[in-house]
Amino acid sequence: MLNERALPRIGVLAIQGDYAAHAEALSETGAIPVEIRKPDQLAGIDGLILPGGESTTILRFLEKRRFFESLHEFCLTHPVFGTCAGTILLAREVRSPAQRCLGVLDAVVERNAYGRQIDSTILTAQTELPGGPLEMVFIRAPRIVETGAGVQVLALRDGSPVLVRQGSVMAATFHPELSSDRRVHKLFVEIVASAA
Ligand code: GLN
Questions:
Q1: Given the CA of residue 17, which atom of ligand 1 is nearest to it?
Q2: Number of structural domains, the chain?
Q3: Stretch 157-175: mean pLDDT, rounded?
């Protein structure tokens, strides 16, 4: 049996969006999920997921609660994983429209960039993760339009990165928590476990 104390504690920013599905995915991949709503809770976790949702709403909440600065500090010192709106928050620049971001992922992100017809879709595509093609659920997804040299691209959609890693920062423009395939969360849990 696994020793509970050996499992990494991974926070899920639980302000808005689909944080519950992430918590479940973390339980299934060898981590203890912790819902995070206040800056002082960051002290008790080894890594953090910034879920999908509406980045503007999440950002407003962070600014209103004086949470933005402590979250920024946390991202500079711990593994973090942003999905969809979370990717928008982690980026170094956000376009269409521009909005404030944490700047910890060397990427430029364009919001709602896939157009109306196909703005929400499920694709199966190749990935660098072992185990073959991966199902990807896109919901009003942003597009990563630029990445820095230190950013490793793990999957593409129409030539744009959709899953990336920069050291202990991971980002997906899709929603891995909505698929039953747990390889993406597994990778993040491994990153957190080796950093802790
Ligand atoms: N369109 C949303 C935004 O710009 C992101 C959508 C999502 O997280 N599924 O914040």
A1: 8
A2: 1
A3: 97
